[in-house]
Design goal:
InterPro entries: LPXTG_anchor. This protein is of the alpha+beta class. It is built from five helices and 19 strands. The longest helix has 28 residues.
C-alpha cells in the first residue's frame, strides 16, 4: 500500500471532525447530514439548540408511463380460382346470293369512229413594217472663235473691244473683261441613220390534220369534229341477268334461261357468343374442346359451380382489422418525498427586560401606552416585575429614562460576551461548535498520518 493510500483514512477522519459537528445550524446541507454520519444528534432525537428555522421537505416528480397492450391485426387469405370448362360451337349462316332464274341477253355492237380535224400553222402571218431610223448631225468644219478684250475709259465711261490686249493702254483706259466671239460659224449637215430596215408583209402558211377517234372516246384536245363517221367493226355483247331485269341500252335480245342455286356463308362461333349481324343459327352444334376459366379477382371461397381449384401462387392476405394499441393504464405523475422536513426549534429565551430586537420593554412604563399591547407583551393584570400597574400613578420620566439606559448597557454587554464565547468555541469557516476532545482527535489523526508517511519512506 502506498503512502498516499495510508493518508486516506486519517484525512477523511480529520475532514469529518471539522465539517461534521453536532449542534450546527440546520440551514446548511453539511450540518444537516453530519449528525447522521457520526452518530450525534440524529433526527429522531430532539435538538436542544434554539432559534433554528424550519427546513421544508423536498419532493421529486416521478413520471409513470402508460401501460398498454398491442392487439394483433385480424387477417384472412384469398385466392384466385380456376376450372376447366367444356365448350361447344354453334353454326350460323347468311344468304349471299338467293336462288333465282336468269336469262341470257345479247346484242351486236358496231364500232364507229368519228373524224376530227385541226389546222396546224407552219408559218405565222407577219404584217409589213416601215423603215425606222433617226437624223445624225455631221460637222464638216468647226466654228472659228477668237477672244476680244474689253476696255473702259475712266473719264467718259466709254468702252471698246480690242482684238489683242494693250501693252500700254494709257489715256485712262482700263481692262474690264475678256470674251470669246464666233468669227466664222461651223459647217454641218444632217444624215439619216437607219436603225431597222423596212419589212414586207409575210402571209400565213398552214395545213389541216385529221384524226379518226372512236365515238366512245370523245374528241381529242384541239380537234374539231368534221361530222364524218366510219364503221370499223362490230362485236357481240352478252349478259346474264335475273328474271325481270333487262340490260340498259338498245338492241338487246333475250336468249336462253338458266337456274342458279342460292349461295350462303357458314361460320362456327362459340356457344353463348353474340350472333354476327346478318347471320342466323342453323341449329348445328359441335364440340369446341375445353378452356381454362380463371377468376379476375381473389375471394376466400370458390365461386358457385363445380370444378373450381385454387390458382397456385395467387394467395393474398387481406387485413380485416388493423393492429391497434390499447392503453390499459394512462400515464401519471407521482410526488415522492426525497428529504423529510425539519421542524423549527423554539426561539431562544430572551432577557425579560428586553424585546427580541435587544431594546428594553417600555410597555406599561411610558405614560399613555395602549391597553391592547402586541402579542408577547405582558397583560395589564400580570405585568412584568418593575412595570407599573394601570391603576398606579405613572413613574417620574427621569427615572424611566435612567432605567432604560441601564437596560441598554446591560444588553450590549451580555451580547458582546455571548459573541466572544461563540467565537472561541466554534470553527471560523463553518460556524460549527468546537469541542476539546474533537481537537485532540484531529491532532492525533494528523500525527498518525505523518508517522505512517515517514515510516513508509524509511522502508522504501
Amino acid at each position: 500500500m502506498s503512502s498516499t493510500r495510508l493518508l486516506v483514512l486519517p484525512s477523511l477522519a480529520l475532514a469529518a471532525v471539522f465539517t461534521v459537528v453536532p449542534g450546527a445550524s440546520a440551514a446548511t446541507p453539511s450540518t444537516v447530514a453530519s449528525p447522521a454520519l457520526i452518530g450525534f444528534n440524529s433526527p429522531s432525537e430532539p435538538d436542544s439548540s434554539c432559534g433554528r428555522a424550519a427546513v421544508p421537505a423536498t419532493f421529486e416528480t416521478v413520471h409513470h408511463p402508460a401501460v398498454s397492450r398491442t392487439l394483433p391485426a385480424q387477417t384472412h387469405s384469398e385466392w384466385q380460382w380456376q376450372r376447366a370448362v367444356s365448350t361447344a360451337d354453334v353454326e350460323v349462316s347468311r344468304l349471299v346470293v338467293a336462288a333465282a332464274r336468269s336469262y341470257s341477253w345479247s346484242r351486236v355492237v358496231e364500232h364507229l369512229e368519228a373524224e376530227y380535224s385541226r389546222t396546224v400553222i407552219d408559218q405565222a402571218y407577219v404584217p409589213a413594217s416601215p423603215e425606222q431610223g433617226h437624223l445624225v448631225i455631221e460637222i464638216l468644219h468647226p466654228a472659228v472663235i477668237e477672244p476680244r478684250w474689253l476696255y473702259e475709259q475712266d473719264e467718259s465711261g466709254n468702252v471698246r473691244w480690242e482684238n489683242k490686249p494693250f501693252r500700254n493702254p494709257g489715256q485712262g483706259w482700263d481692262f474690264i473683261d475678256i470674251e470669246w466671239f464666233e468669227v466664222r460659224p461651223a459647217e454641218i449637215r444632217e444624215v439619216w441613220e437607219v436603225t431597222r430596215a423596212a419589212v414586207s408583209e409575210t402571209p400565213e402558211v398552214s395545213h389541216v390534220e385529221t384524226e379518226w377517234v372512236s365515238l366512245d372516246d370523245g374528241a381529242p384536245a384541239g380537234f374539231t369534229a368534221t361530222g364524218a363517221t366510219r364503221l370499223v367493226g362490230s362485236t357481240v355483247e352478252t349478259a346474264w341477268l335475273p328474271e325481270g331485269v333487262e340490260p340498259d341500252g338498245g338492241g338487246w335480245a333475250r336468249g336462253a334461261m338458266s337456274g342458279t342455286a342460292a349461295v350462303t356463308e357458314e361460320r362456327w362461333i362459340p356457344e353463348g357468343d353474340p350472333v354476327p349481324d346478318g347471320f342466323a343459327p342453323t341449329g348445328a352444334i359441335r364440340d369446341g374442346g375445353s378452356t381454362l376459366e380463371t377468376t379476375s379477382v381473389t375471394s376466400p371461397n370458390a365461386p358457385e359451380g363445380h370444378g373450381w381449384e385454387v390458382v397456385p401462387g395467387s394467395e393474398v392476405v387481406v387485413t380485416d382489422v388493423e393492429e391497434t394499441v390499447e392503453v390499459e393504464t394512462a400515464a401519471w405523475d407521482e410526488q415522492v418525498q426525497v428529504t423529510p422536513g425539519v421542524a423549527a426549534t423554539a426561539p431562544c429565551a430572551a432577557d425579560p427586560a428586553e424585546e427580541p430586537d435587544g431594546q428594553p420593554d417600555l410597555d406599561g412604563v411610558i405614560e399613555g401606552a395602549p391597553d391592547d399591547a402586541a402579542p408577547g407583551d405582558a397583560a395589564p393584570d400580570d405585568a412584568a416585575p418593575g412595570d407599573a400597574a394601570p391603576d398606579d400613578a405613572a413613574p417620574d420620566e427621569a427615572a424611566v429614562a435612567d432605567e432604560a439606559a441601564a437596560a441598554d448597557e446591560a444588553a450590549v454587554a451580555d451580547e458582546a460576551a455571548a459573541a466572544d464565547e461563540v467565537e472561541r468555541s466554534t470553527l471560523p469557516a463553518t460556524g460549527a461548535e468546537m469541542s476539546p476532545w474533537l481537537l485532540a482527535l484531529g491532532g492525533s489523526s494528523l500525527l498518525a498520518g505523518l508517522a505512517l508517511v515517514r515510516g513508509r519512506r524509511g522502508v522504501s
